[in-house]
Amino acid sequence: SELTKAEGSDNELAFESALRPKSLGEFIGQSKVRNQLKLILDAAAIQNRTPDHILLAGPPGLGKTTLAMIVAHEGGQPLRLTSGPTIQHAGDLAAVLSSLAPGEVLFIDEIHRMARSAEEMLYLAMEDYRVDVMVGKGPGATSIPLEIAPFTLVGATTRSGMLPSPLRDRFGFIAHLEFYENQELQQVINRAAKKLGLEIDETAQQEIARRSRGTPRIANRLLRRVRDFALVGGKTKIGVDEAMGALKLYEVDDLGLDRLDREIMKVLVERFSGKPVGLSTLAVAVGEEQDTIEAVVEPFLVRMGLIARTARGRQATAAGFAHLGQTPPTNLLD
Ligand code: ADP
What we know:
Keywords: ATP-binding, Cytoplasm, DNA damage, DNA recombination, DNA repair, DNA-binding, Helicase, Hydrolase, Nucleotide-binding. GO terms for molecular function: ATP binding; ATP hydrolysis activity; four-way junction DNA binding; four-way junction helicase activity. Its EC number is 3.6.4.-. It holds the Pfam family RuvB_N. Mg(2+) binds at residue 65. The chain is α/β, with parallel strands linked by helices. It has a 5-stranded parallel β-sheet with strand order 2-3-6-1-7, with helices on one face. The protein has a two-stranded antiparallel sheet with strand order 4-5. A two-stranded parallel ribbon has the order 8-9. A hairpin with a 6-residue loop joins β4 (130-135) and β5 (142-147). The N and C termini lie far apart (52 Å). It has helices at residues 12-19, 31-46, 64-74, 90-98, 116-128, 165-168, 182-196, 202-210, 216-232, 240-249, 259-271, 279-286, 290-303, 318-323; strands spanning 54-57, 79-83, 105-109, 130-135, 142-147, 152-157, 173-176, 199-200, 237-238, 307-310, 313-316. It binds adenosine-5'-diphosphate (ADP). Adenosine-5'-diphosphate (ADP) binds at residues 16, 19-21, 27-29, 60-66, 156, 188, 216-217, 220.
Protein backbone atom coordinates (compact mmCIF):
# COMPACT_ATOMS: atom_id res chain seq x y z
CA SER A 1 0.00 0.00 0.00
CA GLU A 2 0.95 3.68 -0.08
CA LEU A 3 1.78 3.53 3.60
CA THR A 4 4.18 0.59 3.52
CA LYS A 5 6.28 1.82 0.64
CA ALA A 6 6.54 5.30 2.11
CA GLU A 7 10.01 5.03 3.61
CA GLY A 8 12.96 2.76 3.12
CA SER A 9 14.99 3.75 6.12
CA ASP A 10 13.11 4.68 9.25
CA ASN A 11 15.73 6.19 11.48
CA GLU A 12 15.17 9.68 12.80
CA LEU A 13 18.10 11.34 11.01
CA ALA A 14 17.39 9.81 7.62
CA PHE A 15 13.78 10.83 8.06
CA GLU A 16 14.68 14.42 8.95
CA SER A 17 17.08 14.84 6.08
CA ALA A 18 14.57 13.48 3.59
CA LEU A 19 12.05 16.08 4.73
CA ARG A 20 14.33 19.11 4.91
CA PRO A 21 13.32 21.93 2.55
CA LYS A 22 16.21 22.65 0.15
CA SER A 23 15.42 26.24 -0.78
CA LEU A 24 14.01 29.38 0.84
CA GLY A 25 10.93 29.00 -1.35
CA GLU A 26 10.21 25.57 0.09
CA PHE A 27 10.77 26.70 3.68
CA ILE A 28 7.40 27.15 5.39
CA GLY A 29 6.59 30.05 7.73
CA GLN A 30 9.10 32.48 9.33
CA SER A 31 8.32 34.87 6.48
CA LYS A 32 10.12 37.81 8.08
CA VAL A 33 13.34 35.83 8.56
CA ARG A 34 13.03 34.37 5.08
CA ASN A 35 12.81 37.81 3.48
CA GLN A 36 15.68 39.11 5.56
CA LEU A 37 17.86 36.15 4.59
CA LYS A 38 16.90 36.48 0.96
CA LEU A 39 18.10 40.08 0.89
CA ILE A 40 21.47 39.10 2.36
CA LEU A 41 21.90 36.27 -0.14
CA ASP A 42 20.77 38.32 -3.14
CA ALA A 43 23.04 41.25 -2.26
CA ALA A 44 26.03 38.92 -1.88
CA ALA A 45 25.24 37.31 -5.23
CA ILE A 46 25.10 40.68 -7.01
CA GLN A 47 28.46 41.70 -5.55
CA ASN A 48 29.91 38.24 -6.06
CA ARG A 49 31.06 37.96 -2.44
CA THR A 50 30.36 35.67 0.50
CA PRO A 51 27.15 36.53 2.39
CA ASP A 52 27.47 38.14 5.84
CA HIS A 53 27.71 35.96 8.91
CA ILE A 54 24.31 34.92 10.23
CA LEU A 55 23.16 33.97 13.73
CA LEU A 56 20.00 31.89 14.08
CA ALA A 57 18.43 31.93 17.54
CA GLY A 58 15.49 29.97 18.87
CA PRO A 59 14.29 26.73 20.48
CA PRO A 60 15.23 23.32 18.98
CA GLY A 61 13.42 21.94 15.95
CA LEU A 62 12.37 25.27 14.42
CA GLY A 63 14.61 24.99 11.34
CA LYS A 64 18.04 26.44 12.21
CA THR A 65 20.06 23.60 10.65
CA THR A 66 17.71 23.57 7.69
CA LEU A 67 18.26 27.31 7.11
CA ALA A 68 22.05 26.88 7.29
CA MET A 69 21.80 24.20 4.61
CA ILE A 70 19.60 26.49 2.53
CA VAL A 71 22.12 29.36 2.80
CA ALA A 72 24.79 27.05 1.39
CA HIS A 73 22.52 25.53 -1.23
CA GLU A 74 21.16 28.85 -2.51
CA GLY A 75 24.69 30.21 -2.85
CA GLY A 76 25.87 27.03 -4.56
CA GLN A 77 28.45 26.55 -1.81
CA PRO A 78 29.52 23.52 0.22
CA LEU A 79 28.51 23.31 3.88
CA ARG A 80 30.64 22.28 6.84
CA LEU A 81 28.76 21.22 9.97
CA THR A 82 30.20 21.36 13.45
CA SER A 83 29.00 22.25 16.93
CA GLY A 84 30.08 24.25 19.96
CA PRO A 85 30.57 21.28 22.31
CA THR A 86 33.04 19.64 19.87
CA ILE A 87 35.20 22.80 19.86
CA GLN A 88 36.96 22.44 23.19
CA HIS A 89 40.21 24.19 22.25
CA ALA A 90 41.21 27.00 19.89
CA GLY A 91 43.18 24.39 17.96
CA ASP A 92 39.99 22.47 17.13
CA LEU A 93 38.57 25.59 15.53
CA ALA A 94 41.85 26.49 13.78
CA ALA A 95 41.80 23.07 12.10
CA VAL A 96 38.28 23.61 10.80
CA LEU A 97 38.85 27.21 9.68
CA SER A 98 42.10 26.53 7.87
CA SER A 99 40.56 23.72 5.86
CA LEU A 100 37.57 25.70 4.54
CA ALA A 101 37.18 26.07 0.79
CA PRO A 102 36.62 29.63 -0.51
CA GLY A 103 32.97 30.60 -0.04
CA GLU A 104 32.18 27.59 2.14
CA VAL A 105 29.38 27.95 4.69
CA LEU A 106 30.46 26.94 8.18
CA PHE A 107 27.58 25.94 10.46
CA ILE A 108 28.32 25.91 14.19
CA ASP A 109 25.36 24.52 16.11
CA GLU A 110 25.08 25.40 19.83
CA ILE A 111 27.68 28.08 19.27
CA HIS A 112 27.20 29.35 22.84
CA ARG A 113 28.91 26.19 24.11
CA MET A 114 32.22 26.74 22.32
CA ALA A 115 35.42 27.13 24.37
CA ARG A 116 36.33 30.72 25.28
CA SER A 117 39.74 30.54 23.59
CA ALA A 118 38.05 29.41 20.37
CA GLU A 119 35.58 32.26 20.62
CA GLU A 120 38.41 34.77 20.53
CA MET A 121 39.94 33.09 17.52
CA LEU A 122 36.58 33.23 15.80
CA TYR A 123 36.38 37.05 16.16
CA LEU A 124 39.43 37.55 13.99
CA ALA A 125 38.40 34.87 11.52
CA MET A 126 34.95 36.45 11.06
CA GLU A 127 36.37 39.92 10.63
CA ASP A 128 39.60 39.48 8.69
CA TYR A 129 39.53 35.87 7.46
CA ARG A 130 42.65 35.29 9.50
CA VAL A 131 43.66 33.12 12.44
CA ASP A 132 46.64 33.64 14.72
CA VAL A 133 48.38 30.35 15.30
CA MET A 134 50.59 30.15 18.38
CA VAL A 135 53.96 28.56 17.79
CA GLY A 136 56.18 27.47 20.66
CA LYS A 137 55.71 27.85 24.41
CA GLY A 138 56.81 30.19 27.16
CA PRO A 139 58.69 33.44 26.56
CA GLY A 140 59.74 32.40 23.04
CA ALA A 141 56.18 31.75 21.86
CA THR A 142 55.10 33.76 18.86
CA SER A 143 51.86 34.00 16.99
CA ILE A 144 51.87 33.57 13.24
CA PRO A 145 48.97 35.02 11.30
CA LEU A 146 47.49 32.58 8.83
CA GLU A 147 45.13 33.60 6.08
CA ILE A 148 41.99 31.56 5.63
CA ALA A 149 39.47 31.42 2.79
CA PRO A 150 36.54 33.85 2.87
CA PHE A 151 33.61 31.99 4.38
CA THR A 152 30.13 32.56 5.79
CA LEU A 153 29.56 31.58 9.38
CA VAL A 154 26.06 30.46 10.30
CA GLY A 155 25.80 30.10 14.06
CA ALA A 156 22.83 28.53 15.82
CA THR A 157 21.91 28.95 19.45
CA THR A 158 19.01 28.23 21.74
CA ARG A 159 20.38 30.92 24.07
CA SER A 160 21.28 34.12 22.22
CA GLY A 161 21.54 35.84 25.60
CA MET A 162 24.46 33.57 26.49
CA LEU A 163 26.64 34.79 23.63
CA PRO A 164 29.26 37.37 24.59
CA SER A 165 28.46 40.65 22.87
CA PRO A 166 31.77 40.83 20.93
CA LEU A 167 30.72 37.62 19.19
CA ARG A 168 27.10 38.69 18.73
CA ASP A 169 28.22 42.01 17.25
CA ARG A 170 30.22 40.29 14.52
CA PHE A 171 27.17 38.74 12.92
CA GLY A 172 25.71 40.81 10.08
CA PHE A 173 22.26 39.52 10.89
CA ILE A 174 20.61 37.86 13.88
CA ALA A 175 17.41 35.97 13.14
CA HIS A 176 15.07 35.07 15.99
CA LEU A 177 12.98 32.09 14.98
CA GLU A 178 9.47 31.98 16.41
CA PHE A 179 7.22 29.02 17.17
CA TYR A 180 5.05 28.19 14.15
CA GLU A 181 1.35 28.89 13.83
CA ASN A 182 -0.93 25.83 13.61
CA GLN A 183 -1.80 26.62 10.03
CA GLU A 184 1.93 26.65 9.12
CA LEU A 185 2.46 23.36 10.92
CA GLN A 186 -0.39 21.94 8.92
CA GLN A 187 1.51 22.92 5.77
CA VAL A 188 4.63 21.21 7.18
CA ILE A 189 2.58 18.04 7.76
CA ASN A 190 0.95 18.23 4.36
CA ARG A 191 4.31 18.61 2.66
CA ALA A 192 5.85 15.73 4.63
CA ALA A 193 2.86 13.49 3.90
CA LYS A 194 3.23 14.15 0.18
CA LYS A 195 6.95 13.36 0.32
CA LEU A 196 6.20 10.14 2.18
CA GLY A 197 3.35 9.20 -0.15
CA LEU A 198 0.75 9.27 2.64
CA GLU A 199 -2.90 10.06 2.20
CA ILE A 200 -4.11 12.07 5.16
CA ASP A 201 -7.27 14.11 5.45
CA GLU A 202 -7.39 17.72 6.52
CA THR A 203 -8.91 17.23 9.99
CA ALA A 204 -6.20 14.71 10.83
CA GLN A 205 -3.58 17.22 9.71
CA GLN A 206 -5.16 19.88 11.90
CA GLU A 207 -5.25 17.62 14.95
CA ILE A 208 -1.56 16.79 14.57
CA ALA A 209 -0.62 20.44 13.90
CA ARG A 210 -2.44 21.62 17.02
CA ARG A 211 -0.39 19.24 19.17
CA SER A 212 3.02 19.85 17.62
CA ARG A 213 4.23 22.35 20.20
CA GLY A 214 4.73 25.00 17.52
CA THR A 215 7.65 22.93 16.20
CA PRO A 216 8.11 21.39 12.71
CA ARG A 217 10.40 18.63 14.03
CA ILE A 218 7.64 17.50 16.39
CA ALA A 219 5.00 17.77 13.63
CA ASN A 220 7.04 15.43 11.45
CA ARG A 221 7.64 13.04 14.33
CA LEU A 222 3.95 12.88 15.29
CA LEU A 223 3.04 12.32 11.65
CA ARG A 224 5.31 9.30 11.67
CA ARG A 225 3.60 7.83 14.73
CA VAL A 226 0.18 8.46 13.20
CA ARG A 227 1.42 6.76 10.02
CA ASP A 228 2.47 3.73 12.13
CA PHE A 229 -0.92 3.64 13.79
CA ALA A 230 -2.72 3.61 10.43
CA LEU A 231 -0.32 1.07 9.01
CA VAL A 232 -0.75 -1.38 11.87
CA GLY A 233 -4.51 -0.83 11.79
CA GLY A 234 -4.54 -1.80 8.11
CA LYS A 235 -5.68 1.64 6.94
CA THR A 236 -4.45 3.12 3.67
CA LYS A 237 -5.87 6.55 4.40
CA ILE A 238 -5.18 8.51 7.54
CA GLY A 239 -8.27 10.06 9.06
CA VAL A 240 -8.97 11.79 12.32
CA ASP A 241 -9.49 8.46 14.14
CA GLU A 242 -5.98 7.28 13.32
CA ALA A 243 -4.54 10.66 14.28
CA MET A 244 -6.37 10.76 17.61
CA GLY A 245 -5.61 7.11 18.34
CA ALA A 246 -1.87 7.60 17.92
CA LEU A 247 -1.80 10.89 19.82
CA LYS A 248 -3.66 9.32 22.72
CA LEU A 249 -1.34 6.31 22.73
CA TYR A 250 1.71 8.57 22.94
CA GLU A 251 0.10 10.75 25.61
CA VAL A 252 0.33 13.93 23.63
CA ASP A 253 -2.15 16.21 25.34
CA ASP A 254 -4.58 18.70 23.89
CA LEU A 255 -2.04 21.52 23.72
CA GLY A 256 0.84 19.28 22.67
CA LEU A 257 2.65 19.50 26.01
CA ASP A 258 5.29 16.82 26.44
CA ARG A 259 6.35 14.98 29.59
CA LEU A 260 8.76 17.67 30.80
CA ASP A 261 6.28 20.48 30.08
CA ARG A 262 3.68 18.67 32.15
CA GLU A 263 6.07 17.97 35.01
CA ILE A 264 6.94 21.64 35.22
CA MET A 265 3.26 22.59 35.16
CA LYS A 266 2.59 20.09 37.95
CA VAL A 267 5.36 21.50 40.11
CA LEU A 268 4.11 25.07 39.63
CA VAL A 269 0.43 24.20 40.11
CA GLU A 270 0.41 21.36 42.64
CA ARG A 271 3.61 21.68 44.64
CA PHE A 272 3.86 25.47 44.76
CA SER A 273 0.15 26.32 44.33
CA GLY A 274 0.79 29.14 41.87
CA LYS A 275 3.44 30.88 43.97
CA PRO A 276 6.55 32.14 42.17
CA VAL A 277 9.37 29.59 41.88
CA GLY A 278 13.02 30.28 41.08
CA LEU A 279 14.65 28.61 38.09
CA SER A 280 17.12 26.59 40.17
CA THR A 281 14.37 25.26 42.45
CA LEU A 282 12.32 24.29 39.43
CA ALA A 283 15.31 22.53 37.83
CA VAL A 284 15.93 20.46 40.96
CA ALA A 285 12.23 19.63 41.33
CA VAL A 286 12.02 18.07 37.86
CA GLY A 287 15.61 16.81 37.65
CA GLU A 288 16.49 18.76 34.52
CA GLU A 289 19.17 21.29 33.58
CA GLN A 290 18.31 24.97 34.09
CA ASP A 291 19.47 25.62 30.54
CA THR A 292 16.93 23.21 29.07
CA ILE A 293 14.12 24.64 31.13
CA GLU A 294 14.96 28.20 30.14
CA ALA A 295 15.64 27.59 26.45
CA VAL A 296 13.27 24.76 25.57
CA VAL A 297 10.39 24.44 28.03
CA GLU A 298 9.63 27.95 29.23
CA PRO A 299 9.36 29.75 25.89
CA PHE A 300 6.55 27.44 24.82
CA LEU A 301 4.67 27.49 28.14
CA VAL A 302 4.89 31.28 28.23
CA ARG A 303 3.69 31.55 24.66
CA MET A 304 0.70 29.31 25.51
CA GLY A 305 -0.07 31.57 28.47
CA LEU A 306 0.26 28.67 30.94
CA ILE A 307 3.03 30.21 32.98
CA ALA A 308 4.30 33.72 33.57
CA ARG A 309 7.83 34.91 34.23
CA THR A 310 7.76 37.52 36.94
CA ALA A 311 10.54 39.33 38.80
CA ARG A 312 10.10 36.86 41.65
CA GLY A 313 10.20 33.69 39.55
CA ARG A 314 8.03 31.49 37.39
CA GLN A 315 4.40 30.92 38.25
CA ALA A 316 1.38 29.13 36.86
CA THR A 317 -1.38 31.31 35.41
CA ALA A 318 -5.12 30.69 35.69
CA ALA A 319 -4.95 29.03 32.25
CA GLY A 320 -2.16 26.81 33.58
CA PHE A 321 -4.35 25.69 36.50
CA ALA A 322 -7.24 25.09 34.12
CA HIS A 323 -5.09 22.96 31.83
CA LEU A 324 -4.37 20.59 34.73
CA GLY A 325 -8.04 20.61 35.66
CA GLN A 326 -7.45 22.58 38.85
CA THR A 327 -9.04 25.69 40.30
CA PRO A 328 -6.57 28.55 40.73
CA PRO A 329 -6.23 30.10 44.20
CA THR A 330 -8.21 33.33 44.53
CA ASN A 331 -5.10 35.44 45.16
CA LEU A 332 -3.35 34.25 41.96
CA LEU A 333 -1.73 37.05 40.01
CA ASP A 334 -2.54 37.06 36.34
P1 ADP B 1 16.92 23.02 14.46
O1 ADP B 1 18.28 23.03 13.79
O2 ADP B 1 16.40 24.40 14.73
O3 ADP B 1 16.88 22.15 15.69
P2 ADP B 1 16.08 21.60 12.06
O4 ADP B 1 16.52 22.55 10.99
O5 ADP B 1 16.94 20.40 12.28
O6 ADP B 1 15.86 22.38 13.43
O7 ADP B 1 14.59 21.14 11.70
C1 ADP B 1 14.01 20.00 12.24
C2 ADP B 1 13.11 19.30 11.26
O8 ADP B 1 11.98 20.11 11.00
C3 ADP B 1 13.76 19.02 9.91
O9 ADP B 1 13.51 17.68 9.56
C4 ADP B 1 13.05 19.91 8.91
O10 ADP B 1 12.72 19.16 7.78
C5 ADP B 1 11.79 20.33 9.61
N1 ADP B 1 11.56 21.76 9.39
C6 ADP B 1 12.07 22.76 10.13
N2 ADP B 1 11.65 23.96 9.69
C7 ADP B 1 10.84 23.71 8.64
C8 ADP B 1 10.08 24.55 7.77
N3 ADP B 1 10.06 25.87 7.91
N4 ADP B 1 9.38 23.96 6.78
C9 ADP B 1 9.37 22.61 6.66
N5 ADP B 1 10.06 21.77 7.46
C10 ADP B 1 10.79 22.30 8.44
